[in-house]
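Milestone M4 deliverable, item 7.
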Amino acid sequence: MAASLPQGWTLCASAFNWAPDIIAAHRPAPEIVTAIVEEGIADTVELEPGLLWRSFPEPDGGEVDRFRSGLAAAGGRVSMAGVSLDDFSSPTRVRPPQERLDFLVPQLRAAARVGAAGVRLPIGQAGPDLLRHLLPLLHELDLVLYEEIQGQQAPSAPATAEALETVASIGDPRLRILVDISMLMPALPVSYLDELSRGGVPADLVARLAAEWQGPETQDAVVSFLRSGNVPPQVHTLYMNLLIRFGRSHARDLQDVLPLVGAFHLKFWDLEDDGGRISRPIHDLGRLLGSEGFTGTLTSEWGGHEWLRDDPTAMTRQHLALAARSLAS
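Output delivered:
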């Protein structure tokens, strides 16, 4: 699948795609994740340790080793692991700096132990002081810490720009940016719009979302309807994706930050590619990366299981094939 891609580009599958199966627990989580490799979907996997290991956030060494051995026996390896920085030790007590560091360190050691090349946090969550404190350990463990931008966290947004500047000013290759292409959405997922309609969102607003997602007036309409208090309760959480998880940026908007970028999430929600709503952003990204000499991972990550009940194995397999074609073209 990846043979026609430039050298140094690695297509991966995220274990997050199988979150509903892992939560259902009909099979052990390590077995589900190892099957990603055994069934030929991808030989490189991104882990979600909070779903994978019962001992998280202080993963037991034996549990980590058993998973690594099983994955290696199947011919697989780990690209990166998502880590957590839970800033509250109770509903009212914020962790002080040393506790934040102590909470994160066992996760980093487990990521190194499982053979991951990197770990992932939301951008800006750690803050500059903690990032600097982590650098010696990242070098010791041979890990890269990726700060992830996604959805409406465009590089030009003030909070995102400040966090990007922090990474740039630290200037250490152990700190890099991961871009989730939920930032690059020319149109909204068909299945999502159908879910809003079924949930009672007015037809005129759904039609506007379908036809004019990238228009600035559409965002105003989304906010206005939210403030009206009329969003149906059954789709209220889903509706918030319009303000957080779905972006309006273009691949060209990433040009200036590409020297800091070492990985991408090829986020998808369903497989309805009419008008190139899935393939076009990937194709545009591929053209940009091809001209910049990018090396790193490009990981299929399915977010649509929030409202779809489709088979994650079939969805991921088809999406990786589509992504490979779009990147190679």
